[in-house]
Amino acid sequence: MAVHNPLAGVPLRAARWSATHPWRAILAWLAFVVIAVGLAAMIPTKGTVDADYRLGESGHADQLVHDAGMASPQTENVLITAPGAGALDQQAAQGAADTLTAAMRDAKGVVKVQPGQWNPGRTALLVDVELTDKTDDVAALQKITSQTQKEHPELQIRETGDVSLDAGINDQVGKDLSSAEGISLPVTLILMMLAFGALIAAGLPVLLAATSVAATIGITAPLSHLVHADSTVSSMIVLIGMAVGVDYSLFYLKREREERAAGRDTLDAVEIAAQTSGHSIIVSGLAVIASMAGLYVVGGVTFNSLATGSILVVAIAVLGSITVLPALLAKLGRWVDRPRLPFLWRLNRRIGRGGISRRVLGPVVRRPAAALILGGVVVGALAFPALGMKVHESNLETLPGTIPQVQTYRTMASLFPAQGASADVVVRAPASDRAEVRAALEALNTKAIGTADFVEGDAEPIRTSTDGRTSILGLAMPYKDSDPKVDRAVERLRGSLTRDTLGGLRADYAVGGQAAQDLDVTNHLSTYLPIVIGFVLLLTMLMMAFAFRSVPIALLSTALNLGSVGVAFGLLTLVFQHGWLEGMLNFSSPGFIIDWIPLFILVVLVGLSMDYHVFVLSRVREHVRRGLPARLAVEQGITETAGVVTSAAAVMVSVFAIFATLSMLEMKMIGVGLSAAILVDATLIRLVMLPAALVLLGDRAWWPLRPERPVGQRVVEVEPEFELVSS
Predict the structure, then answer these.
(1) Residue 704, preceding peptide bond in cis (omega within 30° of 0)
(2) CA within 20 to 30 Å of 334's CA: 104, 407, 462, 724, which one?
(3) Helix ranges restricted to H, 161-232
(4) CA distance 254 to 325
(5) Distance in angstroms (rounded) separating the CA atoms of residues 337 and 334
(6) Burial of 324: CB neighbours in 10 Å, binned 0-12, 13-18, 19+
(7) What does the pLDDT look like over 658-679, one tens digit per residue?
């Protein structure tokens, strides 16, 4: 007769209550999800505002501009050129510009239409349309542009600008995410069918993950009034929620089926799964949460929002895995393996015996030192390119040229250099010093243009507020946004140029503008990347030490995580900085990695890889506590978990690989970095390096407290913290 340890902990108590009160648990979960989703309908989500993104000197400059009421108005630009490589009919172009100007003056949301301006070679004509701050729809202007194009087939007339460019990008992002979600769900379901060979078992992980995501998105609506919701947070929630939700259910369900196959009834099988996989799920969830908390170290609304959303979805997925999942398993009983898919059922049972993993593990456990060295060399080689990784803020060059507004903007920037990279020098001084400030800014403008880093821009480059206290000097650069010379120009402007001309004023001044903001963001993230790496690795190391009561296990886990991160960064550098696989992945290398991508991949990769790492170590420790020798415990533990780890990794690799096919470069970077790194992590690192290291460490792996088998008792099941024994 089984005797349950009263200290079996949260997973066991939650599973026992849920399994004995299944309908209460199921209805409580449904009520929770419905209420959470209802919150989103009742409480509008509060998105971010421009002030949330202020950072460094450029943020201070933006604050000065905002306080003076001098924020640049939104502008739409209509570009008139010759079609193809032909010569421009200047008279026709001027006539088209006059038609546009007359029609757009009366359009809704238009403040002013500037006279058309020619580029230096008179090969293009540009019409600038100033909009009100509240204008978020330029369909009327686009209609006028299209109509003018029809009336002038001998010209090429295109529109881009603040509103239309943002709309084009948002539309493309929406299409990409819809495509990814539409593909990822059936792919995940197919992989679950391969893992279980039965429809109900395959559907449960997907169902639990989907409800966890829905509940999280609902709860983030009221939370957004405390932490403003960045536009990317919903995608992050879906990405992380589906990954961990499927994994946790997979771990639990696989163990429950394994125990039933060993002859235990449903209730005992659920309780043993709670003691083993349930404990692993909690430890893994805490590890993922600890990793995601590293984003708070960076600060800023984007990372705070992403951290909050991802931590919440992981916590909800853990809650569902230890409550409603046991209830569903108890209610379904053996029906969870129905209806069976004959071919997949037989294939699943064959793979589940661990034949493939045994063939891999055989030479690893026989020659662990050679396996560890060889694995380390491969990981080191893949990570080595990361030493030369360059990061930069995303810009016009990183956007897909398939977006018409992007292509138009690139053409406009090449024909009109003043429309490209630019910086603003903002000066706030007493109104009585207005003349002195203007003279200093005029001198600065002359000096800046003399360096060749800046060019003549607007006819009147200096603007002054109505109260005379704030002045802005706009400086244009003859470079593309992604050119490294832009950063050097901003740094030079912030150094000797402004110091020599503005240093003697009784004024507060700062260099801002888009180029300066890009530089500040990149410098900020570059500064915090090593800090976040250290924070995440240290926190997960402490958690592993606490969970397994083992210093070597904690250090080993940290070293392996560092190897996984190195592989991800190295592959990102090879593919996107050096342009490997450009043709296959359909992108053009910008020569750098978008600055926030390494931080994002770091926390996601460490968090997700800890899922199956904890699961594998927990099973190995079970066998150690049963009294098996270290080598046999490692071999048996990894063989038994290989199928689950393969299934979990296959889901994550497949879902992330879908992102590599999308058009937005950020999505491609996330997809390639995570899918490739998780593939290497789940195979080479966890299937070769981890067992090799554990075999070499032997009993020392569990120092200072080696798990001991209770004297005089026959162990039925053992779990890292608790045991189920019979007398």
Answers:
(1) yes
(2) 724
(3) 162-196, 199-223
(4) 12
(5) 6
(6) buried
(7) 888 888 898 899 999 999 999 9
Q: Containing H/E element for 402? A: none
- Please give the Cα distance from 449 to 445 (Å, whole number): 6
Establish how many alpha carbons lie within 13 A of residue 483's alpha carbon, considering only the half-sphere containing its beta carbon.
Answer: 14
**H or E element, residue 81:** strand 75-81
Q: Is 400 helix (H, G, I), strand (E, B) or coil?
A: coil
Q: Which residue has the tokens 């779990």?
A: 719
Beta bridge partners of 463: 472
622-645, pLDDT tens digit by residue?
A: 888 888 888 899 988 888 888 788
Dihedral sign of CA atoms 683, 684, 688, 692 in order: negative
Distance CA 349, CA 353 (A): 7
Q: Give 353's pLDDT tier (boundaries 50, 70, 90).
A: low
Q: Whole-angstrom Cα distance, residue 379 to residue 263?
A: 42
The burial of 656, by beta-carbon neighbours within 10 Å (0-12 exposed, 13-18 middle, 19 or more buried), is given as buried
* Under 8 Å between Cβ of 65 and 512: yes
d(CA 724, CA 727): 10
Element (H, E) at 71: none
Question: What values do phi and psi take at 561, rounded to 5?
Answer: -60, -40
CB distance 184 to 242 below 8 Å:
yes
Output the pLDDT for position 348: 63
Mean pLDDT of 168-185: 82
Mean pLDDT in the chain?
86
Two tokens, residue 596: 């926030």
For the stretch 535-589, pLDDT in tens is 988 988 998 888 888 999 999 999 999 999 999 999 999 999 999 988 888 888 8
Q: Confidence band (pLDDT; 50, 70, 90) for 492?
A: very high
Burial of 220 by CB count in 10 Å (0-12 exposed, 13-18 middle, 19+ buried)? buried
- Which pLDDT belongs to residue 708? 57
- Could you tell me the CA-to-CA distances from 312 to 194, 228, 603, 679 in Å, in that order? 29, 15, 15, 26
Q: Position 616: which residue type?
A: V
Structure tokens at 417: 């250099």
- Give pLDDT tens digits for 300-342: 888 899 999 999 999 999 999 999 999 998 888 888 888 877 7
DSSP 114: P
Taking the C-alpha atoms of residue 554 and residue 494, their distance in angstroms, rounded to an integer, is 46
State the Cα–Cα distance between residues 650 and 675, nearest whole angstrom. Answer: 9
Which element (helix H / strand E) includes 694? Answer: helix 690-697
Say how far apart CA 575 and CA 559 lie, in whole Å.
Answer: 24
pLDDT tens digits for range 602-622: 988 988 888 888 888 988 988
- The string over 606-636, giving b where at least 16 C-beta atoms fall within 10 Å of a residue's C-beta and e elsewhere, is bbbbbbbbbbbbbbbbbbbbbebebbebbbb
- Between CA 478 and CA 654 the distance in angstroms is 43
In angstroms, what CA-CA distances link 53 with 48, 59, 228, 424, 517? Answer: 8, 8, 11, 17, 9
| Domains by residue range for the chain, with CATH | 1-42+197-352 (1.20.1640.10), 74-167 (3.30.70.1430), 408-518 (3.30.70.100)
Distance CA 7, CA 571 (A): 46
Rounded CA-CA distance 376/374 in Å is 5
Looking at the chain, how many residues does it have? 727
Decide if 350 contacts 197 (C-beta within 8 A): no
What are phi and psi for residue 714, nearest 5 degrees?
Answer: -90, 120
Give the phi and the psi of residue 719 in degrees, each rounded to 5.
-130, 155
The Cα angle at residue 477 between residues 476 and 479, in degrees rounded to 5: 145
